[in-house]
Specification:
about 375 residues; mainly alpha; ABC transporter transmembrane region fold; about 85% helix; ABC transmembrane type-1 domain-containing protein; transport; ABC_transporter_C-like; nucleotide-binding
Length: about 375
Amino acid sequence: MKGDVFSRVTYWYIQPLLILGSKKTLTIDDLWRPDKSHSASAIHTKFERYWRLELEKAKKENRKPQLINALLRAYFPALLLGFGEYCIKTVCTFMSPILLNALLTFLGSGDTRSYIGYYIATGILLNALISVFMGVESWITAMGTGYQIRTAINSHVFRKSLRLTNASRQSTSTGQINNFLTTDSGHLMNYMQFTYLILGIPIHIIVAIYLLWQQLGASCLAGLAVIFLAFPIQRFIGARQTKVFTTKQARGDKRIELVNETLASIKLLKLYGWDMLFHKRVTEARDLELESIKLLGVYKSLDDLVSKVTPLFVSLASFAVFTVVNSGSGLYLDANRIFVSLYLFDILSMPIAATGAVFNLGSAAWASQKRIET
């Protein structure tokens, strides 16, 4: 799909498709042809080249080849582009409280040069536009790379399934392969497309703490202590999720295997009256899988709870310590300090919340990689 610069920046090129979709049901003929580099054959060829390099390197180093290494080599440029776009967005994010501080300082100074205020307000607007644009671009890059990674994994699994020996076919069920193509490849996709967060989150937190130090001084360390207390809790929850997820996947494989076995032999089951016996076996396997899914939901809820309440306790601890420490020094929480600090705490809440998600994505991806490699 081609378009001018304005169309690319504003995504106006998709408007005709949206109008057409409001008038009728879209079909495959209404969509644009994908780029040849996005086809399954091109993605498979590219990944297999890097997979062979990983096999050769693993053989020289006398270790097992790792799927993650091949994926990183194949899609490192795209991941680096996403990280660069994310860094620009992060810079714009931290420019917002700096510009807000400048605007509040100007309004409180009584300066009559109004053009300074207009300049600052214009800077806030332009900064917000750039931040939104780079945020969307980084998201598009991440999603596009993620789906290419999923296609590469699925084609690799499908190719490997066609070359299984008879002995391997006995130990690998259709349900297990189906889980590789759906659930496991999805977890690896989710993790790989957001790898830039692994580098971005520490930078995000360090810069936010530095700016908070400018506003609250050493009192912001109280908030930092709360963050460090939250990290091991989230890590523990992520480790438990990995263990439960591995169990859930194994139980899911067993359930699908039993269902396929039942459907393949349905005539014999009816003939000999074994249908209730197999129904009981499938139900028991399903109940075990549902038990693991329920436990995963509990851990996810706990992780969401920690992510949501941590920013609240961070701001509460920092403001409380600042008030106590500076009660006799003449420093107080004025509007400038409060609004800028709250803005920074809001910015800080994003990487804190994402930390738990990164742990969860990493845990699920690690378990999925082990399942596929075996």
